[in-house]
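Help: why these numbers?

___
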Amino acid sequence: MKIKKNVFAAVFLGILLSGTAMAEEKKINELEDLVVTEKSNPAPIAHSPEKTVIDIGSYEITGVAKNIADIIRDQPVIDFRGASDLVPGDLVDGDDTVWMRGFGSNRFVTAVDGANIHKPGGRNTFHVVDYSLLPTFLVDEVEILPGPHSALYPGMSIGGVVNLISRTPSHYNCVKPDVSVTTSFKSYNTQNHSAYVRGGIDDFIYDAGYQKYSTDGYLRNAEADIDTFFGRIGYILPSGGYITLTASHTDATREIPVKNDLSTGDYDGGFPELTTSSYYEWQTPQWDETAVSYRLNYNQPTPVGVWDLNAYYGEEEWEKTVLRQDQSGAYYDAGWTGTWYMQGGKLTDTITFSDRHQTIIGTDIEQFFDGFDTKLGSPAAFDDEKRVELKSCFAQHKWQIIPRLTLTAGLRHEQADIRIDNMSSSTGALLITGKPRWIERSFDDVAPKSFLTYELDDMAEGLRDTSVSVGVSRIWRAPINFGDFNPRGMPAGAWVDPEHGIGYDFVFSRRLVKDIQLKINYAYYEIKDYLAWNWDYAQYTPSGSNPVTPGMEYQDYIINLDKVTRHGLEVQLTGHLMDDLSFYIGYAYQTFDSKGGEPAGEAAVDDMAKNRFNAGLRWQLCENTLVLLDYKYQDEQVVRKGEEVTPDEWVFTRIPMDAYHIFDLAIQQTLFKNRGPLKKASLKVYVNNLLDEDYENLSGYPATDRTFGAALSFEL
C-alpha cells in the first residue's frame, strides 16, 4: 500500500531543506575539557503548568511494566480501565484500557514523537490505541498534556495528549553495546521476559529489543501470550540532526473470559464465579492479533529552523474465534477477521527567533484503510478500503511577553473525509435506501488554541516559584471513528455532525518547600453536538415490527446531543519528605452533565467514577534497598458493556461497580554494581492488591485478587 503523494512531497521538502543546511559551512566552537565528578539523576516526574513529564529511566513502579499504560496509570488525569492487570490490551472485553479526563481514546491523542497513532477503532467500541503494542523499549520520556490547548495535535485531543518521546540518537565511545535483561514471574503463571540492546559505531546507532509476556489469567478462559520484537537503526548527521528507521512486530493471543456460573452447573471451582460474560466455555472465544509498524524519523537543523519529519506505516490484523452450534447441533466457527492499515506523516519546522519567540509550523496527513470478513463468507466483505483521511495544517507561537508572562497561541485547520459502509454484513442488502454502498462525507474547520502563564515571583516573597495559568481553546472533532460513523456495522455516520465547543483550564503551580511541587488544575468543557450511542431509544432502526420510511433508516442510531458539560479537578503533589523518602499524591474529580435531556445523553455521561485518588511512597531504606508502596481508590460507577457475539449480534449489559481501595507493595534490592561484565543487578519482589480487595474491572468481572511476583534485572 503506497503512501499518498503529498506525504512524499513533505518528505522531499524536508530533505531539500536539510540538503541546503548541510551544504553550509558549520562553525565549530572548541571548549575546554570538563571533568564530571558526579552525575545527577533526573527527577522521575516533572510538572509544569502545561504538562507533566515522566522520565522512564528513573520512574519506578510496584511491579514490572508490560507497556506504557503501566507507566502513566498513576497520573490523576489518567483513568486506567484495563479488563485485568494480568492481560494487557483493550479488545479482550471490547473497550479502552486507558481513558483521559473521562474520555475514551476517541477523544484524546496518543502520539509517538509528536505524531498521532491510532486507528478508526472497532465496530462498537473505541479501540483506537492498543497499549499492549507500546512497550517501553525506546521511550525516553512521556509527556502528558491535559486539555485541548495544543495546535500541534488533532482535534480529537479533547481530553489531552499522551506523547511518547523516543531516545535521541547519540554517539557511543566504544563498540560494546549496552544490554538490559529482565525476567519476572508472578502468580497465575504470569511471566514477563525482556531483553534490550543499544549501541553504535561512529555515526551509526542501533537498538533491538524483545519482550515475551504470558499469563494463565485470573478468570476462566483468560490466558494471554504476547511476543513483541523491535529494532531501530539510525545515522547522526554532520549537522547535528539524525535519521532513524524503527520497526516492530507483535504476535498476540488473548482469550475472552467465559461464564463460570454456580447456579447453572457450568462451574469450575478453580476460577472465580462469573455470570455476566456472554460466552460459555465450549465456545472457546479468543482474539488473535498480528501487528507490524514502521516509523521514519528525520531531524535536521537548517538556517530556517529545525525540521522534523515523522512518517509511519502500520498494520493490525485481528481474528476472532468463537464456536456456535447450528440447528443440527454441529459446531462451527462464527468468528471473523478485521485488518486495519494506518499510514501518514507529520512535518514541522521549529523556528527560534530569540529567547522570547519560538514558532512551530507544520502539516500532517493520516490515512486509514480497513478490511473485514466473516469466516462464513459475508456478502459485505471487503479488502483495503480507505475509510478515513485526515489532513491538517497548523501554526503555534510561544511568546514571552514580559519576563514573567508567557503566551502560547496557535491555530489548526483540519479536514476529515470518511467513507461509511452501507451494506449489511449478514445479508448484503443496502441499509439506507437510496444511498450508495460507500457513503462519503467531508468535514473541516479551524480551531484556535491558547495557554497563558504568569509567574508571581516578583509580586511578593511568599509567591516565589508560584504561577497561575489559563488555557482557552476551541474544541472541534469530526466523527472519524467506527464507533461514530459505523457502530455495530450500521451506517449511522450518514446523519451525524462534528462535535464543537470550548475547553478551559485554570492551573495553579507552586513549589512549597525543597522540591515539593503542588499543581492544581480545574478544567471546564462545554461540548455541543456531542456524539452518543442511541440505539436503545432509536425510532428509525428498521425491523419486522418497526417499518421505517425508506431513506430514513438509522437516522437516530447515533445522535448529536444538544450540549454536554464537564467539570473536573486534578491535584498533584510530588517531592521528597526527606532525602531518602519521596512521595506522590494525586486526586481527580469529574462530573459530566447532558443539558439537552436526551435519554442517550444521560446514559453517556452518568456512568463515570466521580472521585479517584492515588498515592505512593518511595523509601530508600539503605543504599541498595528501595521500598515502594502504592495506594489507589476509585469511586463507584456503572459500566455499559457491549460484546459482538456474532457479526451484527450484540449483547449489552449495564453493570454497577462498587468503590474500591487497592494497595501494592514492592522491595527492590540492588544486588551488586560493576562486577565483571555486569554494570548492575537488582531483584524486585512485589505484592499487588496487598489486602486482597474484592472489586470489579471495567467489564464488571471479578478483578484479580492478591498476586505475588519477583523480577531479576541485569545491565551489561
